Structures are given as C-alpha cells and as structure tokens.
C-alpha cells in the first residue's frame, strides 16, 4: 500500500513536470505549426539607425506545414516581391527577375530573410527541448525551455523559449549564435483565434523582434487570418 | 704617337661639336639609367607588395578545386590538420628555413551596437602575420598575440562605424554549415589596406577566432609558404617602405622551380594540392611589369635613335671637313684601315667619356631625387610611397653597349667611305 502510494506520488510528480518537447509542439500550433493551410496579412515596421525613413510593409502570407509564401502589398515600390520558404530553403522573386534568387544562409543574417527565420513556425522539428526553469513573464508563469538545434542546418544553434504555463503559447524567445552570443530577442502576443479542425485555438497576433548587435527593432502585426486549402504547386520556386 | 692621345687632340680641334656629341651621349645614358632605376624600384616594390603587403608569401598551397568549385561548397575543400602537418613536413624537407602558415577567409557583418555593414576578412595567426609582413612587420600593431579577440579594421570601415583602437564591435557570420555565429571583438588597430577598394570593408582576424566563427575546428582554407624568414626593417615605416622598394624578393626562377618540386612531392605523397608562386597569384605585378618593360624598350629606341642620329651627323660632318687631311694621310702612306681606325678610336673615346659623364649625371640626379623625399600615391592605392631611384646595372650596361656600338658604327661608315676615295679627289677637296 505504502509502495503503491509512493509509486503514485512518483508518477504524480512526473506528470506535474511537463515534457519539454510536447510543450514545444503545442506552442508551435499557435504560430501555425500544424495547420494544413492558413493565410494572413502582416504589417511590418522597422526602426533603428539602419532603417531611417523606411515605410511600413504590408505582406500577404500563405502557409502550410512545411512551406510559406509571403507577397509584398505595400509599399508600392516593393509591390509584387515574393519570398518563398520550403523547409529550410528560401527564394526571393521580384517582378522583373527572370528566375527566383536562392537566399543563402549568409543573406539570412540580416533583413527580411532574418525575420523570416524568426517568424518560422516549426521549432519542434528542428530543435530538441529541455526544461530549464519556471519564470514569470509580465506576471504570467512560464516554462523556460532550452532549445538546442538538432542539426547543423538551423540558423540559430540555441533558442531560449518562454512558454506560458496556462495558455501553452511561446511568449518570449532569445536566439543565440553557435558561440552562445545573443543575436536576437523576440516577444509574442496571441490575440487572434483560428479554427483548427473542431477547435478554436489562439494564434499569434503580434511579434516584436530586437536585434542584439545593433539597435534595429522590427514589429509585426498579424491580421485577416483565415484557413485555406492550397495546392502544392503554389509553393514551388518555378511557379513564383 | 699614342692613338688615344691623337684621338683626344682631334676631338679638341672642334670643342663645341665634340662637347655636343659628348653631352648627347651623356644625357641619353643618364635618362635611360634613371628610367631603368626608377622602374627597378617599381618592380621590386610591386613584388614585395604582393609577397608582404598582400600577404601572399612566396608560395600558396591549396586543395585542387578550392578556387573554383570550392567557392560554392567550401566545406569540401578545406585542409585537415593531418594534411596541414604532412605539407609542413614535406616543405621543411625541401626548405629547412621555410615556414608554412595556415590561412582563412571570412566575411559577414560587423556592427558597432547601432548599425552594421559588411566586412571581408583574412584569418591569420598573429605570429604568422609578422612573419609574412616582412619589412612591414612591426610598423603597425595589426594583431597582438595576447589579444585573441583583437582585430585590425580598415581605415575607411572604421570611419564608417566610428571605430578606433580600443572600440568594441561584434562580428556576425555564417558558419560553414549556414548557422548564424557571432563574436565580440575589440579593435586592436586601424590599418590602411593601401587599396581604396578594400579599405572600407577589410578586417584582419586572428586565425583561432575566424576558425571558431566558421566552425571549422583546426582546418584551414589555404597555406602560405615562405621559403625563408623575410628580413624586417626594425618596425620603422620609412625604413620599411624603402626596404620594400630596394630589397628584391627571392629569384623568380628559383621560386618557380621550388613550386614544381613541391607539387611533385605532394603528388607522390598522395595529396591533391595545387601550388602557385606569388607571381602566378599576382596578375597585377605581371601586367605592370609588362607595361613598364614596353615603355623602357620604347624609350630605349627613341633615345638611341636621337643620340645615334646626332652622332652620325657630327661624325660625318667631321669626316667631310677632314677630307683633305684624310687625303694627306693616305698620300703619306696610311692604309685605309688605319684611317678608319683613327675615326673609330675618336668615336670610342667620345662614347666612353659620354658614358662616364652620363653615369655621373645619373648619380647626381638620383641622389637629388632620393634626398628630396618626394612622395606620391600610386594608382589604386591609398598610401604614399617614396619616389626612389635605384641602380639597374643590367639595363644600364645594356643601354651603354647599344648606344656605344651604334655610335661607333655611325663613325665607322662615313670614315670608311672617305678612306675609299681616290687620294687625288680627297686632296682636291676644299
């Protein structure tokens, strides 16, 4: 009886501490990780010394589990530019180019491609999570996860991710280089909702991304969210 | 009478004409010697600039294909630590005094906390850097052995980001696999790359730091081979620049022979490596040398033409005026050959004296120019170099021989013609 009680107590404590990888997968859902097809609009504003006078951008995004396509609506000067991401490959297509341009990892260090890397949704696939500690962010209790890259292909070798204990969404993240130097930090808000099968789940509504090496700051606002079905052909570089 | 004394006396008979002949030879020789001496310093300077300034060293060793296919897939063309050790052993057998320096290239973004811009860098160990800099080592601080995160920044790049010695900055690069990597660095020195195209992008980074940033362990992208320990200039810029212009590099043919020998050794050891000399690597040197060689040849032709014509003119006038004298000498029993020899010796004397005077003029002019300390900025460069004239014995002697031979021929032809004339015609000449 005592043994059973001890066993139960042990099992209970195992249940109380959540599986870090499961947490990660759950938090991915709120950023589009597991939905078959989704479309939304993003309003992007860059501030900082390197972006004086840059007008805000409006981008229409379509995404599946493995690919996403972003098309610029505003400003007029960039209208029609597209960025395609399939797994870990990225291409840029602009009206006037004969073929899309493959974006090398080096080009992803700064600019819109870097933002694309951060707004990516599938952490569970590329990272292995371990639980570091519990911490509150803006009064909200969170699990702090240490995400280590599962391979040498992810841009950021390590991410520290604060996942809300109650809402199971990632509210804060820090992105580190291979050498352990902080490169970017981001915060996320989830005031949108989207229909996923028979549930309504919370979805990301805003992101703030701060560059740690310069004073650049990017804010993203997500709106006009809707579930959509896409053909595979829409996410191929030849069809851009 | 001593023929030379006779020749001298004959020269003195028309002092003004003889002086003009002498001076035209002297100025011709001086001009050619000055130009040859100036281009000599340019060749030596450019050679040393390639070897020491651009840090190419004497020979470069790399994996076959690194320069072409390796640009797209660098990971496959790196030299492993084992390969580097084997190359070192092979080189030391051939060149006991030689050095093998592992090298890397790096590029990415450099940020000062507010903004960032692109950089291109070379990774080299601070000790190896001093070796390869040769006469220029110690002049600038560059990289310090005791500062593993100290980098040297190009002047214009430092200006753009507001960096100085002691400033902090951060480097953001992609590793060989495509991951983002970064490091905090301190500006150890601000350097002038000497080239306007790279001064606003260039960094010198310690090898260990660049290896860490690119995540390549102890590998290297290429190896620089020095055939000996280059002489330094005590760390003084003026002496260093002068040494760059006057200390010739190891003989080009010997270096090329060493390249072929090492290439064969590597092949025999099963290493698929390419070896190049600094001349193979420096297209600029070859192009500039070709152009200056062409200009020298052109100058030589022009000076020869002018001087020889002038001498031919004065010699033939001299012969003409002395027709009666020639007739008299022939009537006295002088053979034709002896008459011609008379004039040839006169021409030779004029040539020798002219050459001596030319050398003296050259010496005076070069001393004056070198002492004046004139500085100028060569094309494409951003550094002042001193205008220095060295002595090029080979080409100066060549010029003297050519000039001398042609001048003597210019005297020989009219003399021969006059000596052939009938004695009675010569004597009747007024």
Q: Which SSEs are present, and which pair or pack?
A:
The complex is a heterodimer of chains A (240) and B (430).
Chain A (H helix, E strand, L loop, with lengths): L1 H15 L3 H10 L8 E10 L9 E7 L3 E8 L7 E5 L2 E5 L7 E2 L9 H7 L4 H4 E11 L2 E10 L8 E7 L5 E7 L5 E8 L2 E5 L2 E5 L2 E6 L5 E11 L13
Antiparallel strand pairs in A: 1-2, 1-15, 2-3, 3-4, 4-5, 5-6, 7-8, 8-9, 9-10, 10-11, 11-14, 12-13, 14-15
Chain B lengths: L2 H11 L1 H39 L5 E5 L17 H14 L4 E13 L4 E9 L1 H8 L16 E5 H7 L6 E7 L5 E12 L10 E5 H8 L7 E5 L10 H10 L5 H17 L4 E5 H4 L1 H39 L1 H10 L3 H37 L2 E2 L8 E2 L6 H28 L2 H6 L2
Parallel strand pairs in B: 3-7, 4-6
Antiparallel strand pairs in B: 1-8, 1-9, 2-3, 2-5, 2-8, 4-7, 5-6, 10-11
Helix pairs in contact in B: 1-12, 2-7, 2-10, 2-12, 2-13, 3-8, 10-13, 12-13
Tell me the fraction of residues in β-strands of chain A, as a range: 35-45%
CATH architecture of chain A: Clam
> What letter string, H or E per element, gives the SSE order of chain A?
HHEEEEEEHHEEEEEEEEE
How many DSSP-defined strands of chain A?
15
- Tell me about the largest β-sheet of chain A: 13 strands, antiparallel
What is the strand content of chain B?
15-25%
Count, helices of chain A = 4
If you consult CATH, what is the topology of chain A? Answer: outer membrane lipoprotein receptor (LolB), chain A
How far apart, in Å, are the first and last alpha carbons of chain A? 67 Å
Count of structural domains of chain A: 1
Radius of gyration of chain A: 19 Å
Helix content of chain A: 10-25%
- Pick out the low-confidence regions of chain A: 4-15
**What pair of chains forms the biggest interface?**
A-B, 26 and 25 residues
Main sheet of chain B?
6 strands, mixed, barrel
Order of helices and strands of chain B: HHEHEEHEHEEEHEHHEHHHHEEHH
Strand order of the largest sheet of chain A: 6-5-4-3-2-1-15-14-11-10-9-8-7
* Count of structural domains of chain B: 2
CATH class call of chain A: Mainly Beta
């Amino acid at each position: 009886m005592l043994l059973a009680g001890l066993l139960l107590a042990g099992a209970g404590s195992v249940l109380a501490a959540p599986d870090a990888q499961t947490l990660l997968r759950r938090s991915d859902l709120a950023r589009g990780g597991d939905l078959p097809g989704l479309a939304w609009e993003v309003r992007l504003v860059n501030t900082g010394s390197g972006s004086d006078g840059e007008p805000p951008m409006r981008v229409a995004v379509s995404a599946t589990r493995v690919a996403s396509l972003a098309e610029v609506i505003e400003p007029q000067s960039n209208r029609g530019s597209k960025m395609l991401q399939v797994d870990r490959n990225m291409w840029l297509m602009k009206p006037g180019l004969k073929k899309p341009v493959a974006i090398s990892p080096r080009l992803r260090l700064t600019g819109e491609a870097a933002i694309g890397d951060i707004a990516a949704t599938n952490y569970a696939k590329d990272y292995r999570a371990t639980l570091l500690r519990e911490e509150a962010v803006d009064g909200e209790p969170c699990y702090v996860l240490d995400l280590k890259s599962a391979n040498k292909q992810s841009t950021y070798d390590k991410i520290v991710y604060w996942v809300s204990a109650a809402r199971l969404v990632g509210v804060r993240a820090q992105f580190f280089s291979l050498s352990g130097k902080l490169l970017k930090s981001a915060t996320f808000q989830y005031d949108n909702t989207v229909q996923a099968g028979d549930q309504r789940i919370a979805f990301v509504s805003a992101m703030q991304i701060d560059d740690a090496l310069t004073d650049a700051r990017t804010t993203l606002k997500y709106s006009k969210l809707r579930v959509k079905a896409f053909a595979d052909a829409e996410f191929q570089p030849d069809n851009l | 009478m001593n023929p030379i004394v006779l020749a001298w006396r004959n020269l003195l008979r028309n002092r003004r004409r003889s002086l003009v002949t002498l001076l035209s030879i002297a100025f011709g020789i001086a001009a050619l010697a000055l130009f040859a001496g100036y281009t000599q310093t340019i060749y030596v300077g450019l050679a040393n600039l390639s070897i020491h300034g651009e840090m190419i060293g004497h020979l470069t060793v790399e994996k076959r294909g690194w320069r072409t296919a390796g640009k797209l897939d660098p990971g496959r063309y790196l030299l492993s630590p084992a390969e580097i050790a084997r190359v070192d052993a092979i080189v030391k057998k051939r060149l006991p005094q030689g050095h093998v320096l592992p090298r890397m290239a790096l590029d990415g973004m450099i940020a000062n906390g507010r903004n960032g811009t692109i950089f291109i860098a070379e990774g080299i160990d601070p000790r190896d850097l001093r070796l390869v800099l040769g006469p220029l080592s110690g002049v600038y601080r560059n990289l310090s052995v005791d500062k593993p995160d100290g980098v040297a920044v190009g002047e214009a790049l430092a200006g753009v980001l507001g960096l100085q010695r002691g400033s902090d900055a951060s480097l953001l690069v992609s590793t060989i696999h495509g991951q983002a990597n970064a490091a905090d660095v301190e500006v150890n020195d601000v350097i002038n790359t000497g080239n306007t195209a790279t001064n606003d992008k260039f960094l010198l980074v310690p090898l260990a730091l660049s290896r860490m940033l690119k995540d390549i362990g102890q590998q290297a992208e290429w190896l620089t081979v020095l055939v000996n320990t280059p002489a330094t200039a005590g760390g003084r810029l003026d002496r260093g620049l002068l040494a760059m212009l006057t200390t010739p590099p190891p003989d080009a043919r010997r270096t090329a022979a060493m390249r072929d020998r090492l290439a064969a050794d590597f092949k025999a050891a099963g290493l698929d490596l390419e070896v190049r000399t600094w001349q193979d690597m420096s297209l600029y040197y070859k192009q500039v040398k070709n152009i200056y060689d062409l200009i020298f040849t052109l100058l030589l032709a022009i000076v020869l033409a002018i001087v020889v014509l002038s001498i031919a003119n004065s010699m033939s006038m001299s012969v003409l005026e002395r027709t009666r004298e020639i007739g008299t000498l022939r009537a006295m029993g002088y053979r034709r050959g002896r008459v011609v020899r008379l004039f040839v010796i006169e021409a030779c004397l004029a040539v020798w004296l002219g050459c001596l005077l030319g050398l003296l003029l050259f010496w005076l002019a070069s001393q004056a120019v070198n002492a004046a300390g004139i500085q100028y900025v060569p094309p494409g460069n951003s550094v002042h170099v001193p205008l220095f004239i060295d002595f090029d014995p080979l080409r100066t002697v060549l010029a003297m021989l050519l000039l001398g031979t042609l001048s003597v021929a210019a005297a020989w032809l009219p003399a021969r013609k006059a000596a052939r004339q009938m004695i009675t015609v010569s004597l009747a000449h007024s």
